Every structure is written in structure tokens, then in C-alpha cells.
DNA sequence: CGATGGCTTGAGGGTATTCAAGTGACGTGG
DNA sequence: CCACGTCACTTGAATACCCTCAAGCCATCG
């Protein structure tokens, strides 16, 4: 856990707590204490190195997970060997929970991309609670629907935004607050990884960043980026999107 | 309702019944009769001409809908005026139901693209039933999760498939069964519309179709397409996808 | 009959990808 | 301590793919 991760947390607006368990997740806010206790009792937490595969597409889905620290990518692999990254999850994120019913097998794969601590909880407890507790079922629905809206945005972005706009959008989401003045931020993980997260090659990423530098007067040194005019970045990026700027309501 | 629509129904593997209400929708299979009665009593059905806007992004979401006949597109519009089509819905499809909670406003817009009969049901009844009937809440979750998996596929397709592959995938989904021999099918709606459904321009669609013709020996006359070798189409299309062929489990 | 809308085709340009080479930072091992 | 390999990143050149603009075809319909 080097400087990079610390910087990441600062800019991701996720509190820099070393351990993020169930308590930080909105889905479980206000859940029955007995349920949470059962989950915690049945959980198991492990440290994994970069490269560890948490689950593969078509694996039987018996557990769902929480990222306590580090980063995990959710992706799919084609027969050709190409890979599409669906999302890259920061600490404090739930994953695998969407395979609740679906014939009990995962639709995506999950892999650690930066050394991570991950907690696994049995899916059966989640299923049971949904059937038993209507108010939790409602919270679960809200949780899933929120994820679905994020995915719809993703479709829009990959369809009509060009590379620099997608990158601009990524940067704006990192900042995530309405700041007018100059901003300094740090990229949370490797540029190569951001590139595939945004559905482009790393060369394209590099050129997109160069374009933002020249067009918007951004300064880049390694993973550190200085932005003079948020307004310029916002108008450059968000004009190609259906959401008004402070679009990250999460 | 001309020849075109009839042909469409035949190939979409949706039964060609003139009226498709709640009863044909898996979500409501086995739902409490009292609930269904209440829904039907509170519903209102209307015919709409092509171009009618059912709801707009950010509208208050007080109703959800069922397409009884015709076609409805779900889309988003950017500040630039560009439009991204998320999906095009055939008869027998539910829509608008994903805005159950989300601050009660729609994240997408919906517009009739081929004269349609549409039934509206009050969202409040759906909300109530989910809170009151755990088994229905479970069905609702399954329904939403299924939709989310479809969207994930969509992200994958728009990220790594080229135009002809996306078109090939669209054709395969129309056929939707494991057929080995030659197949004749009819496009369900305008090519222009299919093009934007697949995230490409109509010119690109035309050229993609031409490419399938020359590369795979397909014959095209208007909206009628003859395919000699399903295997050739499948290997051409599905090698760029993470799903094995008969991927339409719906 | 002209107008319209859906579709096709050609030409040109822009964006992203691929292939290739090169840089710089970092860690390992001699 | 330096040599070396590795890895992330950058840059250039060539190419592939898709988009835009423009023209033209064809069927439908008033």
C-alpha cells in the first residue's frame, strides 16, 4: 500500500478508513442487527495480491463480496481473448450481489488489480433476508436499480463520447464536487487500467490526455493532474452527455 | 398494422396475439389475483401514432407501461442533441417499471416508433405490492436483475464488436433458436431504426449488411434476409462476444 | 405527377487501433 | 554501485473503421 492508494482515497471522496465493511454500505444501513450479525459471523476476510481472481464468469455464485481496501475489476472475456472492463471498484463497494438468483452463476469475472482485502459473505443469507424482510427487499431493489442506471449511463458514454470526453468525465467523477477554482488530483490507479475501464487502448488514453492538456491547459506530471478551469472541462465533457454536471449522485 | 408488423411478430418469436397485457409477462405469472385485478382496474389503454412521446427523461414517474402492440424506443438525449437508443421494445414488454423509487423521475425517454397500443398502470400499486408481498418482491428483483444482465451485454457489444458483428448478433437474436440449415427472416422494423438501436449510422448499417452479404453469402431483398449457413454467421459474430451462441435465454 | 421517406452508394475526413520503437522509473542481481 | 530486465507510459506511422456530406434510387402516397 504505497502513496498511490492514499492519494486515490483522498480524491475518490471515499473516507480513508483502512477497513470498510458492511457498515459503510447504504444497502445495509438500518438492516436488522440479527441479519448483520449472522452475515458477519459467516463471513471470511482475506488479503489478495494483484492478479487474484475472485470469481470467473459462469462460476457458481455462492458468495457475495465487499472490497475493504484495494481495487477490483469486473470484466468479461470474449472467445477472441479480448476483455471488456465493466467497472473498477474502490474500497467500500459490494460486488457479486447481482447474481442473487440468476441460476446461481456469475455473469462477469472479478479480479484484484491492486492488492486488496476482500470479505466474502454467503449469498444464501442475502437471499433469505430478501424473502423474509420486505423492507430489506425494497432496499435491495433500490440498490440494484441504482446500479442499473449507472450502467445505462455507461452505454451512453461508450456510444457517443469520444476518448477525451470519456477521460474528462472520469476526471470529473473523481473530483465529484462542485468546485470552481483550480483543482489538483491524483489518478487512483494505473493509466493502462483507466484506459480499459474507459473502453480504449492505452495509447489512445495517452493521446486523449495530451489533448486535454493542450485544449484545456491541464498540467500532468505522472499521476498528478492540475486543472485550472473546471468550467472549461465541464463544458468540454458534459455537452456530449444527457446528464447535467454534478451527475454523480452516489 | 401492415405486412411488416406481421412479419416482425413471426420472427420475434413473440406470439402474434393482437393484445398482450400483463398476463404474458413473466413478472406477473403467479402474482396475487387481487393485485392483478387492482392493476387492471386502475389501468388505461390507448392507441398512439408513431412519434408519440410516452414519457421524457426527468418526468415524474407515476405510471409504468406495457406495449400491447407496435414498437417503443427507450432513449436518452444529450445536450448536443444527439440521441442514444437504449432499447427498442416489442409487444409484450414492460417499461418504465425501473423508476420504481429513484426519486420518482425517469432516467430515460420513451417514444412510439411504430403505431402502438400501450397500457399504463399506476406505479404506486407496484410499489405497494413489493412492500406487501415478499414473493412478488423476489420476482421483481429477478426481473430487474435480468434486465441488468442484458445491459451488461450491451456494454460489451458496443465496446468490442464492429458494425457487422453487432448486426449479425441482432439477426441471431431474431432467430433465437438453434437452427442449422438455411433460414429466412424479416427485419422487424425500419433499418434506420435498427441502425441506431445498434449504435451506428444508417449508412454504416447498409454497408455492414452488404459485408454480411458478400462475406457470408446472405441474400437480402428489402426487409427479407436469407441465410444459408447459420454456423458461418455464428462464428463470424459470436467470436467477439463473451456469451456462447444461444445467448438469448429470455 | 411531384413530394416524401427509406435506403443505398461514393468520396472524403476524422478518430481510434495496431504495430513499432523508444523513454524513464523501478527492482533485482551481479 | 552499476547493469539489466521489467513495466508503465509515450510517440510516430500506417491502417481500419466509422462518420459526414452528397447524390441518387425506389416505392409510397397525396
Blueprint of the fold:
Two copies of one chain form a homodimer.
Chain A (H helix, E strand, L loop, with lengths): L2 H10 L20 H10 L1 E5 L4 E3 L7 E15 L5 E7 L4 E2 L13 E14 H10 L1 H27 L2 H13 L7 E4 L4 H7 L4 H15 L2 E3 L2 E4 L2 H9 L12
Antiparallel strand pairs in A: 1-6, 2-6, 3-4, 3-5, 3-6, 7-9, 8-9
Helix pairs in contact in A: 3-4, 5-7, 5-8, 6-7
Chain B binds a DNA duplex (30 and 30 nucleotides) through helix 7.
Sum up the structure in keywords.
disordered N terminus; DNA-binding; 250 residues; homodimer; 9 strands; Arc Repressor Mutant, subunit A; 2 domains; 40% helix; globular; alpha+beta; 23% strand; three-stranded antiparallel sheet; Jelly Rolls
Describe the structure.
- The structure is a homodimer of 250-residue chains.
- Chain A has 250 residues and is α+β, with helices and mostly antiparallel strands.
- Chain A folds into two domains: 3-159, Jelly Rolls (Sandwich), CATH 2.60.120.10; 161-238, Winged helix-like DNA-binding domain superfamily/Winged helix DNA-binding domain (Arc Repressor Mutant, subunit A, Orthogonal Bundle), CATH 1.10.10.10.
- The first copy, chain A, is 40% helix and 23% strand.
- The first copy, chain A, contains eight helices and nine strands.
- Chain A has helices at 3-12, 33-42, 123-132, 134-160, 163-175, 191-197, 202-216, 230-238, and strands spanning 44-48, 53-55, 63-77, 83-89, 94-95, 109-122, 183-186, 219-221, 224-227.
- In chain A, strands 1, 2, 3, 4, 5 and 6 form a six-stranded antiparallel beta sheet that branches.
- The longest helix of chain A is centred in the middle third of the chain and has 27 residues, at 134-160.
- In chain A, 38% of the residues are buried.
- Chains A and B meet through helix 3 and helix 4 of A and helix 3 and helix 4 of B.
- The structure holds a DNA duplex (30 and 30 nucleotides).
